Amino acid sequence: MTVRPLVILPDSQLRLTSKPLAGADKDVRKLVDDMFQTMYDAPGIGLAAIQIGVPLRVVTMDVSKRDDKQEPMALLNPEIVWKSEEMREMEEGCLSIPEYYETVERPDRVRLRYRDIDFKEREIEADGVLATCIQHEVDHLNGVLFIDYLSKLKRDRVMKRYAKLARMKDDEA
Ligand code: NI
C-alpha cells in the first residue's frame, strides 16, 4: 500500500469524467488499497480515484467516527439511482481543496447502486453524512466539485486563492 500524492485545485484533472471499470482485477485492488492508504493518511472520509490522478470510477469512503472501528467502503462504478426531494445542509471539505470548508445543500437521502471489490452488484440507501459523502464523491467521477454549488463570487474567490497557492509552490520548486 502506498500513499499517493493528491491532485489539488486548480489541477484540470479534477474536471475529467472518469471511466467505468469492466471488472475488479489485481490492478484495481492495488488502486483501492492505495486509495485507502492515501485517504486515512490525509486524513479524509472519502476519496475518488481522480484525486490521485486515476480517471476511473472508483471511490473509497469511511464515515465512521474517529474513536469507532474503521468502516472502509470501496465503491466501484457507483451510481445514484434515487435522491430524496427533502434537502439537507452540511459543511463539506475536500482533500483536493485543503483547509476550505463551506456549507452545501444536497438531497437528504440517496439510493446507491455500485459494485463491491468482488465486482458484485450491491445497493444501499444512505442518509446523513454517508449520503452527503456519496454525492460528493460521485460528483468527483463526473468532474464536479463541491465549490460548484456555491455562489459564483465565493467560487471565484476560492479558485483565485488556490491558483495563487499553486503558483507560489511552483516558484519554490
Ligand atoms: Ni472531494
Please give a quick description of this structure:
This protein has 173 residues and is α+β, with helices and mostly antiparallel strands. It has a single domain, classed as Peptide deformylase (Peptide Deformylase), CATH 3.90.45.10. The chain has three helices and seven strands; from the N terminus they run αβββββββαα.
Summary tags:
alpha+beta, Peptide Deformylase, two-stranded antiparallel ribbon, 7 strands, 29% helix
Topology:
Elements: H1 26-41, E1 46-48, E2 58-61, E3 73-83, E4 87-94, E5 97-107, E6 110-115, E7 121-126, H2 128-141, H3 152-172
Antiparallel strand pairs: 1-2, 2-3, 3-6, 4-5, 6-7
Bound molecules: nickel (II) ion (NI).
What does this structure look like?
The chain is α+β, with helices and mostly antiparallel strands and 173 residues long. The chain has a single domain, classed as Alpha-Beta Complex (Peptide Deformylase). Helix content is 29%, strand content 28%. It is built from three helices and seven strands. The strands form two sheets. Strands 1-2-3-6-7 form a five-stranded antiparallel β-sheet. Strands 4-5 form a two-stranded antiparallel ribbon. A hairpin with a 2-residue loop joins strand 4 and strand 5. The chain is globular, with a radius of gyration of 16 Å. It starts with 25 loop residues before the first helix and ends with a helix. The mean pLDDT is 96. The structure holds nickel (II) ion (NI). The site of nickel (II) ion has 5 residues, from helix 2.
